[in-house]
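#help-structures

NK: newbie question. if I give both the sequence and a SMILES, will the prediction place the ligand too? trying with zinc ion
OV: yes, paste both and it writes out the complex. here, I ran yours:
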Amino acid sequence: MSPTTSAPAIGVVSKKTGVRWIPVIGLEVHCQLKTETKLFCSCRYEFGASPNTLTCPVCTAQPGALPVLNREALALAVRVAGALGADVAARTKFDRKNYFYCDLPKGYQISQYDQPFCTGGGVTLASGKRVRLVRIHLEEDAGKAIHDRGDMTLVDLNRAGVPLIESVTHADMQTSDEAYEYLTALKEILQYVGASDCDMEKGSLRCDVNVSVHPEGEGWRTKVELKNLNSFKNVKDAIEHEIERQIEAYESGDKSKFPVQETRLYDATTQTTRTMRSKEDAHDYRYFPEPDLVPFHLDPAFVEKQRSMLPELPAARRARYQSQFGLSAYDAGVLTSSRALADFFETTVKLSGNPKESANWIANGVLANLSDPAITAKSVDELPFRAHDLAELIELVANQTIHNNVGRTVLRGMFESGKSPRQIVKEQGLEQVSDEGQLESWCREALVGKDKVIADVKAGKTKAVAALMGPVMKASKGSANPQKVQEILLRIIQTEL
Ligand SMILES: [Zn+2]
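OV: that's the protein plus ligand as structure tokens.
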């Protein structure tokens, strides 16, 4: 941002015409709820299970089968509403959304049309901008049609009836970065609340984007829906591509090329979008009330109970880590990126009594090891040691039993063997050596033939002694107490040589 402007300019200035185009972006996110059973029957759901094994007469739409609402799904949905600051409706109902597709045996999806269980709410971005939610509704997932088997289409109904919440934002975003940040924040909240694992690779979080552009000062134009976005990065790339495509289309002046209301599929390999179908309007689905599920009132006590079960949310934790522990905004952000990581950090702080070092060892040491392909553990849930062990490591460094650099070796050993830091230090003889006699003999060895350094130090450039630290640390396999080594080196040079 240039220091002379008070607010960052929004939009994209066309190189061709100089027109400033303002993008308008809204997101619809479908998220599978982590319930034991499906939304209207008692089937379990497990990603990757053998096709059509997790089904029953209800989710395969056998004649006469009746849906029964899963109370746990409703509870999780209400908890999400609370976490997003949304209003839970006093009365809600389900509707049939009618369309035909081979993965939808009923010929309709049970969803919510005009009386969703929740309206309003939103997510606040780091800039302070609020991305508002229009609504969140509950619905069932469809099955899965698999088209890539030659001339066959296979249908797996395991996913049919899995509970989803669909959250719809207002078109409040203007850049792909805002969309990315919104999605990241939403995902964090859904995971903190325990509503979903939000694993895009397993399809438990799916995102559709609506994008339009208009010249600054003019009204909104036709929006285009983008689908098939299976990572947040794809969402970002697809939005950028689509903004560019729409501006080019308008600036061509050829009305036949202007964006039309349609759904486009994003192809991540070519980074382009192509028409999938013209977008349906709500009336195309002929929504009508689901006759097998009566409208119902949400008991305020039930809603209140769900709210009371909310954990401290990521934004609140970030703020607290900065005020209570004096961490930087960056470190607070890293440590709260998942609830498991934040919990691990807090336990380590409690056990070590050292928030800064706990943050440092986790944000740098633990996370660096987790992202190393040579390490088996991939997330904090898979760590082969506990917060207790990390607190012990922090203590060993703090009381100078081991040097900080040796601490890193010990941490690596903890990842590799799951052994306690004390045990690793003992087995590998890593304890810091402060014994004067031993240190002195390493120092004398290191001084042999180092006349230039010796001369420099004698001339008053005591910093030159740093060149001897490496050899001493090497000779001691990192176990020498560096402060003492420096003192001894200076003493020998200044008094004996
Ligand atoms: Zn079922």
